[in-house]
Amino acid sequence: AFDATETEYFLCLVSFARAATPYLKSLIERRRSEILARRESLSKRFENASNLASAATETYYSAWYYSAAHLLSTVPGHQTTAVIAERLRLDPAFAEVILKDLERIGLVKSVRGQWKSLDSHLLVSNEWSWARTHHTNWRQRQLMKRQEPFSEEIRFTGVHSLSRSDFKKMKGILADGISAIRSLAEKSSPDDVFVLTIDAGRV
């Protein structure tokens, strides 16, 4: 069964095939392009995600360890400063500073020696400058981990020659996959924290 967006797109295709004039076809094609653009926009897909205030955004997305420590506070057995520091290979005193920063911006709270997440469904729009910082931070972190032996990680690099229309289809497939992964994560009972980084673009 189609979801609402897929149904709307399908009806556009039907209407385009039946359109009797070039002007009507151009209107329908414009609408079809708008639907594709909306499909590829992750921020529009995840409208239930929270946005941080400006000052909090500056802190949270300034370094990879803020989101890592924050997400670990959602995992039972990983919610003390000592465990978070060990898991992220950080100095315990520095880990404490990170967690207190997260507490200050309202993302965690300390409850009887354990850090509890108050909101784990965050999203920063790609239009924000901090999104680029966030993407870069995690990619640099993953590059550092490339020195470690392969374990459960998936690593893939593919360079493809294809049409621009097929590249748009590829972006749609990736966006659908990201939506499915986010939905899976929201329903999961966490026992660890994992990172997914995806880049797709013109060479």
Would you write up a description of this structure?
Helix 1 runs antiparallel to helix 2. A two-stranded antiparallel ribbon has the order 1-2. It contains nine helices and two strands, in the order αααααααββαα. Strand 1 and strand 2 form a beta hairpin. The chain is 57% helix and 4% strand. The longest helix is centred in the last third of the chain and has 24 residues. The chain is elongated. By secondary structure, it is mainly alpha-helical. The model has no long low-confidence stretch (mean pLDDT 84).
Concise account of the structure shown:
This protein has 203 residues and is mainly α. It has helices spanning 4-18, 22-40, 42-45, 54-60, 64-72, 81-88, 92-104, 129-145, 164-187; strands at 108-111, 114-117.
Element layout with pairings:
Blueprint (H helix, E strand, L loop, with lengths): L3 H15 L3 H19 L1 H4 L8 H7 L3 H9 L8 H8 L3 H13 L3 E4 L2 E4 L11 H17 L18 H24 L16
Antiparallel strand pairs: 1-2
